[in-house]
Design goal:
Layout lengths: L7 H6 L1 H4 L3 H23 L3 E2 L17 E3 L7 E3 L5 H9 L4 E9 L11 E9 L4 H20 L12 H8 L25 H16 L1
Parallel strand pairs: 1-4
Antiparallel strand pairs: 2-3, 4-5
Helix pairs in contact: 3-5
């Protein structure tokens, strides 16, 4: 039976049956393969895999922490990590120049398409490198994943553009380059327009440019 014919609540209630479907098993096996590639690739590139604590002191991050009460210290709470940020910086100071971890992260925030309360990320940190070194490691990993998991060869280095170019051309710092929907500056053409909507937008843009 197709997924579209079954409500998500029903699929989750009978998850043990849902996971028997070949499509679901392919996805889980695919994730396993990606994690295996990550372990091998980063090990071969000099990274040390180190587990960092999951019960930590609450730290200021981009979202709220999940709090866990302590039985041993009544009235005190642990926080679940939003990321291993502080720990990996400590590791850099400790002489571990290349660290990686398949890290569990927790963020108490509203659901969005690209945000989940609980997720896993490939977390890494490098010392004594520049941005090109970091991007080269990431590109090499993606090339390896596509080849070993999907048997697809992708070209590296990837196309790069600056933040300013992306915002000026697409109005987004993560544009989808499959679609040629670039922004076009019509300021000169609309400079003397009498249409109030365009005229107001043009004046606002001029004020904004002048203030910066």
């Amino acid at each position: 039976m197709e997924d579209s014919n079954v409500k998500e609540d029903t699929r989750l209630k009978y998850r043990y049956l849902d996971l028997r479907r070949p499509d679901m098993q392919r996805k889980i096996i695919g994730r396993h393969k990606i994690v295996k590639v990550a372990h091998d690739y980063f090990d071969q590139n000099g990274f040390i895999e180190i587990e960092t604590p999951d019960l930590i002191k609450s730290t200021p991050e981009g979202a709220r922490d999940y709090l866990v009460p302590s039985r041993v210290f009544p009235g005190s709470f642990f926080a679940l990590p939003q990321s291993p940020q502080l720990f990996k910086q400590l590791l850099m100071l400790s002489g571990f120049d290349r660290y990686m971890q398949i890290a569990r992260c927790f963020r108490d925030e509203d659901l969005r398409a690209d945000r989940q309360p609980e997720f896993t990320q490939i977390d890494l940190e490098m010392s004594f490198v520049d941005q090109d070194d970091v991007m080269a490691i990431g590109e090499g990993f993606m090339k390896r994943v596509y080849k070993e998991v999907l048997n697809i060869d992708i070209e590296t280095p990837f196309r790069r553009m600056t933040w300013h170019e992306a915002m000026n051309r697409f109005g987004s710092d993560k544009p989808d380059l499959r679609f040629g929907m670039e922004l076009i500056d019509l300021s000169d053409s609309l400079r003397n327009t009498e249409f109030k909507v365009f005229a107001g937008a043009w004046r606002a843009a001029v004020r904004s440019a002048a203030s910066t």
